[in-house]
Amino acid sequence: MTTVYAVRHGETPWNVEGRYQGQLDPPLNARGRQQAQITAKALAPLNIEAIYSSDLKRAVQTAEALARLTDISIRLDPRLREIHQGAWQGVLVEEIERRWPDEFAGWRRDPWHHRPPGGERLQDVQERVLAALYDIAARHPGGTVAVFTHKLPIALLKIALHGAPADRLWELLPANGAWEVFHVTPELLIRVQQQLEGKRPSATT
Predict the structure, then answer these.
(1) Averaged over 40-55, what is the pLDDT?
(2) Whether the model pTM is above 0.85
(3) All structural domains of the chain
(4) What is the pLDDT of residue 204?
């Protein structure tokens, strides 16, 4: 069994502005850097043996605080990225609501059957993040690792691995700098992937 601390990156200027980030690459702001330090100090005593991160700057900068305390190098994995939000990336929420009222309403009401225009489906994000976690667990059996990622990937892992209700996705999003603990094995992740494949709906947009 591998113990995984899945950490959401610290705050960015776009978090403050209410601007959709997706796979665009704003850095941490001052508060985000402080959150990274607080998180690093909490995780450093936990015998972390490896640090993995999304390759997006805000996740890497958050991971760097722990890497400095533990002298562990960061391994980048693009599969840990946030959802690609298509046309909505870099756009303020109020502008999204104004320019894409029907699409945004559908996304907020039923995200499993809708997606940002030109963006990823939740099912696809969940699949790639679970695949990344499978590889990490296989490399570190019995170990403890830190994985720096984003809010939707962590919420999707909580649904897949903790049995959180899929229809409460928006309530499962972690705060900046917060983390969730997962105890995983490759065998568990294979079973979860098979179960999800059997019941995933197709996106309608």
Answers:
(1) 98
(2) yes
(3) 2-199 (3.40.50.1240)
(4) 40
> Measuring CA to CA, which residue among 93, 88, 84 is closest to residue 22?
84
What tens digit of pLDDT does each residue of 184-205 get? 988 888 888 787 776 665 444 4
DSSP string, 74-101: EEE-GGGSPPP-GGGTT-BHHHHHHHSH
pLDDT in tens, 59-101: 999 999 999 999 999 999 999 999 999 999 999 999 999 999 9
Nearest to 44 by CA among 28, 24, 21, 67: 67
Dist. CA 67–CA 14, nearest whole Å: 25
Give the pLDDT of residue 199: 64
Question: Which residue among the candidates 84, 113, 114, 150 is catalytic per the annotation?
Answer: 150
| Listed residue (46, 56, 69) closest to 143, CA to CA | 46
Query: Is 9 a known active-site residue?
Result: yes
Q: Which of 9, 113, 162, 183 is catalytic?
A: 9
Letter for the amino acid at 69?
A: L
21 within 8 A of 92, measured Cβ to Cβ? no
For residue 191, what pLDDT is reported?
Answer: 85
Residue 19 DSSP label: B
Instruction: Decide if 150 is catalytic.
Output: yes
Query: What is the CA angle 12-94-25, rounded to 5?
Result: 30
CB count in 10 Å sphere of residue 147? 28
